[in-house]
Amino acid sequence: MNTANLRSLFIIFGGTGDLTHRKLIPAIYNLHYEGRLPDQFAVVGIGRRDKTPEEYLQDLYRAIKSFSRFPMDDTHWASLSKRIYYYQMDFTDASKYGELKTFLDDLADRHNTLGNQIFYLAVAPEFFEPIVKNLKDSLLCHGKSFWQRVVIEKPFGRDLQSAIKLNATIVDAFGEENTYRIDHYLGKEMLQNLLVIRFANLLFEPLWNRHYIEQIQLSSSETIGVEKRGPYYEQAGAIRDMVQSHMLQMLSLIAMEPPTSLTPEAIRDAKVTVLKQLKRMDRETVRKSVVRGQYGRSLDQQLLAYREEDRVSPTSNTETYVAMRLEVENDRWRGVPFYIRTGKRMPRKSTEVIIQFKDVHNNLYSHVPNLEPNLLVIRVQPQEGVFLQFNAKKPGNEDIIVPVQMDFCQNCEIGINSPEAYERLLYDVMKGDQTLFARWDEVYESWKFIDTILDVWKEEEPDFPNYPANTYGPKEADELLARDGKKWLNIHEPWTALGGK
Ligand code: BG6
């Protein structure tokens, strides 16, 4: 493989943080393990903590052992660790960036990285702007023979206004073409696969519209609570943490028109069109169509309530669960409900998209009681795959119709060990491929949509907590679907028929 154009310095602000340990360093290790990194590559972790280089490497070694998908191999580690550096610095102090530049220039010479740099901002959101401003003043050169890219973690702003301000600072410094707004869901195998499933098969695309689809459900449930992230989560809540980014990105991939080509711009044009076409909600619709929740203690009292979690206010009104009904106002989707739900402390970890087809027109079998609908399920995690439910005759002399399932489990196949989302995304940043990163207009449109909900929520005090930990969320979320004569569809193994109505 020709890796020459990937040579670069990978500079992590927040080099001692959780994301670096859990995701970034394991991803770099896995890329190295697979031989995908060039020799001319080095990592610099920047942090405020006082650490010797040895201590830093020991921390990373442990992180790789715990979180990498490939096992720790001492030969690989010996070769990678020679190219990892720790740099201690207060990154809010503008006067320190000159020294940082000298340090990085030195490393660039030593590792022959040609001046290519990736600045990864794995820090709390309040540091995004100051760091980018300091980089602009001290480090950015806008040379033609090398590239300098910035990767911004979410949350990208906390509402439309703050996102606009943040974006102006970043784009002013780096330009849109060097800005990588990460949404790690886009790096997940099955979300990339969605494009293939939809557009490389005759089977699905002709049915992918309001004439044949009854409803679409997108669920992302987690078993974990907020863990050690109380201060961040108090500011975010589920709507900013999951819906504004991951859930709306998934929805736009499901609902978009066929892009004119597979170029990053064409795909992102198609996605942003969906976000623009989300039906705006007035106050009344927000009240009716959006449900927020916060977990209390589990029924057996073993799991703490959100308000009892570390560094969370005992009177917090931050939501840990959101469910909503959305509509996409275009010819393809008019009238088809899209239901989204996401929450912490649910009984199982899973992300899936369930597409329920309409009943057969003039069905010859309409006399059969409880005929089940056709369902197509895109399983994003923990299992990756596609599941199709249809009706068939039960073998035997009686005419009994039963729902049967075809199940393609991608990561059940021996030897399949799908890359982590971050591996794919970091590699794309090195290659300069922005397809799986949110473009500014996507972020803009999704905040515009979310802001209308936040505005209504500000006016009303929720009645929290309203669901016990280890359950599927507040009863209002069930009522939301019941009003449409529907219910949430939970896939369980072994498969049982999923009644869509
Ligand atoms: C992150 C959120 O973006 O996504 C977390 O900040 C959440 O709160 C996580 O737990 C979920 O990601 P995944 O890949 O585990 O579904």
Q: What would the keywords be for this entry?
A:
501 residues, alpha/beta, six-stranded parallel β-sheet, 13 helices, 35% helix, globular
At a glance:
This protein has 501 residues and is α/β, with parallel strands linked by helices. The protein has 13 helices and 16 strands.
Structure description:
This protein has 501 residues and is of the alpha/beta class. The chain is built from 13 helices and 16 strands. The chain has helices at 18-33, 53-67, 74-81, 97-111, 128-138, 160-174, 189-199, 230-255, 264-276, 283-289, 421-431, 440-459, 475-482; strands at 8-13, 41-47, 84-88, 117-121, 148-152, 179-181, 213-221, 290-293, 295-296, 321-326, 338-343, 350-357, 375-381, 385-393, 401-409, 467-468. The strands form three sheets. Strands 8-10-11-7-12-13-14-15 form an eight-stranded mixed β-sheet, sandwiched between helices. A six-stranded parallel β-sheet has the order 3-2-1-4-5-6. Strands 9-16 form a two-stranded parallel ribbon. Strand 4 (117-121), helix 5 (128-138) and strand 5 (148-152) form a beta-alpha-beta unit. Helix 5 (128-138) runs parallel beside helix 6, helix 6 packs antiparallel against helix 12 and helix 8 packs across helix 12. It is globular and about 80 Å long. The mean pLDDT is 93. Bound molecules: 6-O-phosphono-beta-D-glucopyranose. 6-O-phosphono-beta-D-glucopyranose binds at residues 154, 222, 241, 351. The site of 6-O-phosphono-beta-D-glucopyranose has 4 residues, from loops.
